[in-house]
Design goal:
There is one protein chain. This protein is an alpha/beta fold. The chain has a single domain, classed as Rossmann fold (3-Layer(aba) Sandwich). Helices cover 35% and strands 24% of the residues. A six-stranded mixed beta sheet has the order 6-7-8-3-9-10, sandwiched between helices. Strands 2-1-4-5 form a four-stranded antiparallel beta sheet, with helices on one face. A hairpin with a 2-residue loop joins strand 4 and strand 5.
Length: 251
């Protein structure tokens, strides 16, 4: 495939944290096509959050190469960061600010302002279904409301690529359903999505292609149907346990 058809191309990524005895990523390679909804599955400590951090430019890998939208991330980080959105696993909001003020703050970090920013804020508040709460402090929000606003903050710059690290963990079914609906709409409108999750049913419902990662390496990838057929598994959860084992991953 022509490189210009890839939104993300990561080759042989290596990364080890200073206090860890084993690598977080150990030669992991990953490609995501433009317009794809790619799900990355893995147990705790498999390397999912690390690869999201590297691909979004939060810190550089110890080895390997990352190309985003046809540009080397090391050489064109500034341009690339303006074209991507990141929704981290932890809530990245300011409790003492309102929803509108949080979105304005993140929009200004991208150099947005004036009527353009106000229109984007209105769009993001609509996506998060928070119009009635737009001027309330985030400290008063429920967990589901915070998750929805966390997603909206990642969309304020209308990114071409959206990175999501377990964006629906610990929330109510109604908020999860709304987030799913909005993500599918974004993807249908052309946004490339890389999504990590522990919920196998999410991956099967949302993702056009999935990869399973463990011990810092990509074990397999393909459409959910292809992977189940190739491995003789009845569902993604059974396939996940087959490839990663049933040992608890509490640390």
């Amino acid at each position: 495939m022509n490189n210009h058809e890839y939104a993300i191309k990561a080759e042989a990524l290596l990364h080890r944290y200073s206090k860890s005895s084993r690598p977080a990523l150990n030669g992991c390679s990953l490609t995501v096509r433009k317009g794809e909804f790619y799900g990355l599955l893995g147990p705790n400590g498999a390397g999912k959050t690390t690869i999201i951090a590297l691909l979004s430019g939060l810190f550089p890998p110890k080895g390997g190469k990352i190309v985003i939208l046809g540009m080397d991330l090391r050489q064109h980080a500034g341009i690339i960061k303006g074209s991507i959105g990141l929704v981290p696993q932890d809530i990245a909001l300011y409790d003492n600010l309102t929803a509108r003020e949080n979105l304005a703050f993140f929009g200004k970090l991208y150099g947005l302002g004036g009527r353009q920013l106000q229109n984007l804020i209105a769009d993001c508040i609509h996506i998060a279904a928070l119009r009635e709460h737009a001027d309330h402090r985030v400290a008063t929000f429920s967990g589901g409301m915070k998750r929805r606003l966390n997603l909206a903050a990642g969309l304020i710059n209308t990114p071409k690529i959206l990175f999501l690290d377990e964006p629906t963990v610990g929330i109510d079914a109604q908020s999860r359903n709304l987030i799913h609906k909005q993500l599918l709409q974004l993807n249908q409108n052309g946004t490339t999505i890389l999504y990590t999750t522990h919920y196998m049913e999410e991956a099967g419902k949302l993702c056009s292609r999935v990869g399973i990662i463990d011990s810092g390496q990509l074990l397999t990838e393909g459409t959910p149907g292809q992977l189940l057929e190739q491995n003789g598994a009845p569902d993604l959860e059974a396939l996940f346990l087959l490839l990663t084992g049933k040992q608890l991953r509490d640390t």
